[in-house]
Write a structure and sequence with these properties.
The chain has 650 residues and is of the alpha+beta class. It contains 22 helices and 14 strands.
Length: 650
């Protein structure tokens, strides 16, 4: 805690640091590895959440594993950012956000900036989506739009329950560490078991290859029907129709479950989420489209069609036991009036360029794989992908948004480096004797012994990030995507279904054990999402507690043992807002809003962390040029994703 007898050192635009002694880093042997159960575990538990269980399966179901390289880049770039933020906390025991307040031009500007950036973090999408597997378990099926009240009500309950673990347990950090350690062990054990014994070797290699397919992008066929999942496009006069959904087995028959029906006329698009909502004037067209897709669902076959100008080319065939597509018929339909549709018995007979493109579509089960630079050079624009979904996918891969700033907070509360001299945020019950200093404490960097300990701490945080966090984040993304590709490939992701769709796919694939896998996978999804809401609530309250506790003259007059009152006051305000957001927005929409805004927040926080380290740390302790360049590239990556989404919306 703060000691008025210690010497001080000027530290930017806030009160000076005191000068103490840097503690010893963890030694070799088992103590070293026990010491790694720290911020990496907590944030890895948070990281394996909505990004991995919602956007990962959603992207892979529609585009295969092709785009996993974007997630890998996101995670690797975040390692640079995290190391920069933790470096500051080890040096002075303060969170990186507080370090940012110390930089020019002072706290007023930076507090305003973080208040705006935190708009990305206040959306309770973990609670709203954790309600989906609970609803599915209650209903015995995937929830639909008609079940919105149930999903919303369970979302309210889970959101309120997420505050309970933050109230008990000594320090908030220790409780989070226990929750996230249990979550990681339970979730990764189940997903690894399923991947080893129920996922085909081809899918495993497809996912591994997807992480390394840098620059590749998928171009999905406009019509893709694969067994019971369908996306059918149809042009009628000036209107274009697209129907998406699945055929559900009911008493031996294939009954259509419509996820989306879109009608586009010129620049106006109308979207209907249920068959009952489709206007009578379009019901005949919808019936024709469902009739076209039904035979493929009933006979376990596929149909894929794409367009080149006015020419439509297609292939159909059977679904092999290993999931691959075996084409036995192809067709080319020129758009000019009077031209005859040409049919072929094999893809090798189809003339160029349609033969090669059809082989690409069949090999990748519904999409063509092309290189992004080549596509942009040829067409002068980005490929027609769901860029908002992809930006969300990258934003929540790893930590994302202002969540990364919490690496420095947790390093402080874990007692790493000078954090041991500062204190921690106590729980409301069981932590009343814990204190948190209003200012940080640094060490004499000119002392050789202190320099040696500093190098030991730097090696420790690198181990934490590379061995624990990066590995868990990549594995946490890979395993759900394997399940997605194996069980729900080409399925349409619906607003109230995505968090439980893998469970439905597994139950359908293994009907003899359907009930068991249905419940276990729903439980897995719940364990992935629900603890994330606990962490989000803590992150928001913790971030603003640290900002106010350090920057506010009013707060600095409070006793160090009263920091919990400020923390729980902020948590109560977040609770009120979260209930409003859950009432107004559907689950997946909440996740998209928070994720896309999070890219801007992470880019800004990353550059601010780089600035704080360069300005506030002594020259001998400032980060190596390689870490600085990696941090700058991290910011550019996330700013670039946001720019792409905005550009495609204009």
């Amino acid at each position: 805690m703060a000691d008025e007898t210690l010497p001080t050192r000027a530290a930017g635009h806030l009160p000076p640091w005191t000068v103490g002694e840097l503690p010893y880093p963890p030694g070799a042997g088992w103590r070293l590895w026990i010491g790694l159960i720290g911020p990496g575990i907590v944030l890895a538990g948070t990281s394996i959440g909505s990004g991995e269980w919602l956007f990962g399966p959603a992207v892979s179901a529609q585009y295969g594993a092709t785009l996993l390289w974007l997630a890998l880049l996101s995670i690797i770039f975040q390692v640079f950012c995290n190391l920069m933020m933790m470096r500051y906390a080890v040096y002075c025991g303060e969170p990186i956000v507080v370090g940012g307040l110390r930089t020019w031009p002072g706290p007023a500007l930076w507090i305003t900036m973080y208040a705006v950036l935190d708009l990305a973090a206040i959306w309770p999408y973990n609670a709203s989506n954790a309600a989906v597997p609970l609803s599915a378990a209650w209903l015995g099926r995937l929830p639909t739009g008609e079940d919105q009240s149930l999903v919303r009500g369970l979302g309210f309950a889970l959101f309120l329950l997420s505050f309970v673990p933050l109230i008990f347990g000594g320090t908030v950090y220790r409780m989070l560490e226990r929750i996230m350690t249990f979550k990681l062990v339970a979730v990764l054990s189940y997903l690894t078991f399923v991947a080893l014994f129920m996922v085909s070797t081809a899918v495993i290699f497809e996912v591994l290859g997807g992480f390394l397919s840098f620059g590749a992008v998928p171009l999905r066929g406009e019509t893709v029907v694969a067994g019971r999942h369908f996306t059918v496009a149809k042009q009628v006069g000036e209107r274009r129709f697209v129907a998406r959904g699945s055929f559900e087995r009911t008493a031996g028959a294939a009954a259509p479950s419509l996820a989306e029906f879109r009608v586009t006329a010129g620049s106006v698009t109308a979207t209907y989420k249920t068959a009952d909502a489709v206007p009578a004037e379009y019901s005949g067209v919808l019936a024709e489209m469902l009739a076209e897709a039904r035979p493929y669902a009933e006979r376990e076959r596929f149909l894929v069609a794409a367009r080149d100008g006015d020419t439509v080319f297609s292939a159909e065939g059977r679904l092999a036991a290993d999931g691959s597509w075996q084409a036995d018929q192809a067709a080319v339909a020129p758009g000019a009036a009077g031209n005859v549709v040409q049919t072929y018995k094999s893809l090798d007979e189809v003339p160029a360029p349609y033969g090669a493109r059809l082989r690409n579509l069949v090999e990748h089960r519904g999409f063509e794989r092309v290189l992004l630079p080549g596509y942009v050079a040829e067409h002068g624009r980005l490929p027609p992908l769901d860029w908002a979904m992809l930006a969300s996918f990258c934003a929540i891969a790893g930590a994302g948004g202002l969540s990364n700033t919490l690496f420095s907070n947790y390093a402080r509360d874990k007692g790493w480096g000078m954090g041991r001299a500062v204190g921690a945020i106590p729980s409301a019950v069981g932590g009343l004797t814990i204190r948190l200093s209003h200012t940080g404490q640094v060490f004499d960097e000119t002392c050789p012994e202190q320099q040696r300990r500093w190098r030991g701490w730097m090696a420790h945080i690198i181990r934490d990030q590379v061995i624990v966090w990066l590995a868990c984040s990549v594995l946490g993304m890979a395993l759900p995507c394997m399940l997605s590709l194996e069980f729900i490939r080409n399925a349409t992701v619906g607003e109230h279904r995505v968090a439980a769709m893998i469970a439905d796919g597994m139950a359908t694939r293994y009907p003899a054990y359907g009930g068991m896998f249905w419940l276990l996978t729903l439980l897995c999804g719940f364990l992935i999402l629900a603890p994330g809401q606990v962490s989000v609530g803590d992150q928001i309250a913790r971030r603003w507690t640290d900002i106010i506790w350090t920057a506010s003259p009013w707060a600095r007059r409070m006793r160090e043992s009263r920091v919990g009152q400020l923390y729980y006051g902020i948590l109560a305000a977040y609770c009120v807002w979260g209930l409003i957001a859950l009432w107004q927005f559907p689950p997946l929409a909440i996740a998209k809003i928070g994720a896309v805004l999070g890219n801007v927040a992470l880019g800004c926080a990353t550059l601010h962390a780089l600035y704080a380290n360069r300005v506030l740390l002594p020259p001998s302790l400032r980060p190596h040029w390689f870490l600085q360049v990696g941090t700058a590239v991290c910011a550019a990556f996330f700013f670039g994703l946001t720019a792409i989404v905005v550009w495609n919306m204009i």
